[in-house]
Amino acid sequence: MEINPRCLFMILSLGVQLSPAEFLLRQKRNWIIQTFTISESYSGKFPYYLDRVDIDPNLNVFEITGQGINEEPRELLEINKKSGRVYVLGPVDYEKFQTLKLIIKAHSKNNQILTQVGINFEIIDANDNPPIFNQTMYETTINESTLQGTGLINVTATDHDSKEENKNFIFSIDSVTPKPDDFEFFINEVPNFNNGTISFKGCLDRKKADKYILIVKATDLGKPKPLSSSTTITIYIEHGNRHRPVFMNQTVAGAPDSTETPRRPSPQAPPPAPPEGTPRRSQPSQET
Fold first, then answer.
1. Where does this protein have compositionally biased stretches of type Pro residues (predicted)?
2. Max CA separation in the chain (angstroms)
3. What is the pLDDT of residues 265-282, one digit of tens each?
């Protein structure tokens, strides 16, 4: 409760004997700010005692209004008009309400002077929201000849907590079914963009598995207990051109090539004619 020192000095110099409370009562619509804190992470029983508002004994409180009383979130707070004791009646969500503002109206015992007290309740953020994927299931189809390191599919998640230490999170691959033998999946994260890309290293073989089911998890960095959620990714493997061509019928060594055209024998030249004047040989007669 603060009093302007100059005004107080003037009052004392004039010999007027007023207590600080009486001096404040003479200021109509005076504001005295008090601030309390409520933890969003409280998980005990309700209602619970929070603190006490300093109410001057010379005042009669006749009205308490504002957030937590007759404004949203309604019926969250209860303040005893005589003792000033504050009780919290239920949980509050920081993502909806960061500060609650109340006004306590009071008048003096002779009902002549009115004063107002402004009270703030600051809500302390807790790690109460896990990161949530924008899809519960993802699917994609890739060729078995896909090169390692190629991005296969992107995943995205969002954490609705307000503080950086509660809203930051990391991705991880929780399981792969069936378990690969000679390759592995991994996820590349993009900082500050809340998404990651699934990739792999090794060699895909559809003969071993025609699909893989991955469980991908997003875990925040909140304290005292990190929160997480997961999504399912199905990757289908289709046939690809990953084998060299092979001749099915090979040529046997020494065998004639069936593709060659057979050669025809060249015709023999007729014998040369005898020189002129040479008697011809008589042909032997055939006996009957």
1. 264-277
2. 188
3. 555 656 666 666 655 555
